[in-house]
Specification:
Length: about 325
C-alpha cells in the first residue's frame, strides 16, 4: 500500500504533513513519489500543502543562527527567462544598506547560472562560505546558505525530480525553508496566479514582514518590463494585494531582453560592473527589488526612498567593498 494519500483531491494539513514527512524520511518507491508529485502539480498545490511541505523540510534542515531582523531575498526560479542574477545582487546591495541578509540559494536548475554559480565565478568559495556562514552573517551582515548543504533530506529526491523533468511542489520550497529561519523575506515566484496561494502558505508559517512578488511575464522577481503582482504579509497575518511597477520606485521601464544573462562568468562580470557603478536596466532592476527588500526589512516605507538608498550604497562603493570583504573572508 502506498504511504501517500490520494493527491487528486486537496489534502488536509494532517494528510499533507504525514505524506511529506514520510517522503523526506525515505518512505515510498520512486514510482510512488513521482506519481504523487505529478498529480499534485496537475491539480495545483494548495496553501495547506505548500505550508506542510515547508514545515517538513524545516524540521529536517541543518539550521544556522542569525541576528534579529535578518532577511532573505530569494526567488523560486524556473521562470525560463535566463536573466542576470538579480536576487544575488539585491542580497549584496541590501546588506550594504545595513540589513543582515541570509541568502538561500543553489546552483542553476533551469537557468544558465544560479546564485551559487555566479558567486563562485566572482571568487566566493562555496565550501568556505558554508563553513563560515554564521560568522560572515554576524561580522559582515551577509552569508550564502548553499541549499544542498543544508537540506540532506532532499538528496534522495534529486534524481526522482530530475526524472520527472517538470515543476513539482519542491520548486516552490527554497524560499520557505531558509536555514537561518528568517522571518522577513522578499520572495519572487515565477507564476503570478500562485501569488495569493503562496502568500497564504507563508502567512500560515509565520512572518514578521514579507512580500511575494511576480512579474506579469512570469518573472520570479519585480520586473521593469510591465506590472507586478505583490502580496505583502504583515505580522498580524493581514495580506495586502497590490499592483506595482517600476515607476513607483522612480525608475524607467525596460524590456526583459535588457537584463538577459549568460553563463556564470558572464553574469559575474555584469554583477561586478553593476557594483562598480555601471548604469542601465540591470542596475534599475536591482534598485527596484532592493527597494522592496528594504521595505520588508523596515528600513524604509517608500519605494522611491528604497531605490535611492540602494543607489547610494552602490555609488559610495559600499556594496562592492562588501563583496570584496566577503570573498576575502575564507
Amino acid at each position: 500500500m502506498t504511504p501517500f494519500p490520494d493527491p487528486t483531491r486537496p489534502l488536509s494539513a494532517a494528510e499533507a504533513s504525514e505524506a511529506f514527512c514520510a517522503m523526506l524520511d525515505g518512505a515510498g518507491t520512486e514510482d510512488e513519489i513521482s506519481a504523487f508529485l505529478i498529480a499534485l502539480s496537475d491539480r495545483g498545490e494548495t496553501a495547506v500543502e505548500i505550508a506542510a511541505a515547508a514545515r517538513a523540510m524545516r524540521e529536517r534542515m541543518i539550521p544556522i543562527a542569525a541576528p534579529a531582523g535578518a532577511i532573505d531575498v530569494c526567488g523560486t526560479g524556473g521562470d525560463g527567462q535566463h536573466s542576470l542574477n538579480v536576487s544575488t545582487a539585491v542580497a549584496i546591495v541590501t546588506a550594504a544598506c545595513d540589513v543582515p541578509v541570509a541568502k538561500h540559494g543553489n546552483r542553476a536548475a533551469s537557468s544558465k547560472a544560479g546564485g551559487a554559480d555566479t558567486l563562485e565565478a566572482l571568487g566566493l568559495d562555496l565550501d568556505s562560505a558554508t563553513a563560515h556562514a554564521e560568522a560572515t552573517l554576524s561580522d559582515l551582515g551577509i552569508c550564502f546558505l548553499f541549499a544542498q548543504n543544508h537540506h540532506p533530506a532532499l538528496k534522495r529526491l534529486g534524481p526522482i525530480r530530475k526524472a520527472i523533468g517538470r515543476r513539482t511542489i519542491f520548486n516552490l520550497m527554497g524560499p520557505l525553508a531558509n536555514p537561518a529561519r528568517v522571518r522577513r523575506q522578499l520572495i519572487g515566484i515565477a507564476r503570478p496566479a500562485y501569488v495569493p496561494i503562496y502568500s497564504e502558505a507563508l502567512r500560515d508559517l509565520g512572518v514578521d514582514h514579507a512580500m511575494i512578488v511576480s512579474g506579469d511575464e512570469g518573472l520570479d522577481e519585480l520586473s521593469l518590463a510591465g506590472g507586478n503582482d505583490v502580496a505583502e504579509i504583515e505580522s498580524t497575518g493581514i495580506i495586502g494585494m497590490r499592483r506595482v511597477s517600476a515607476t513607483d520606485a522612480g525608475l524607467p521601464s525596460a524590456p526583459l531582453d535588457a537584463i538577459r544573462g549568460g553563463d556564470a562568468a558572464y553574469n559575474a562580470a555584469a554583477l561586478r560592473r553593476l557594483l562598480q557603478g555601471e548604469t542601465g536596466a540591470y542596475r534599475d532592476a536591482v534598485l527596484f527589488n532592493t527597494a522592496a527588500a528594504l521595505i520588508v526589512a523596515g528600513k524604509v516605507t517608500d519605494w522611491r526612498d528604497g531605490a535611492e538608498e540602494a543607489a547610494e550604497a552602490i555609488d559610495k562603493g559600499l556594496a562592492n567593498a562588501l563583496l570584496n570583504c566577503w570573498i576575502a573572508y575564507q
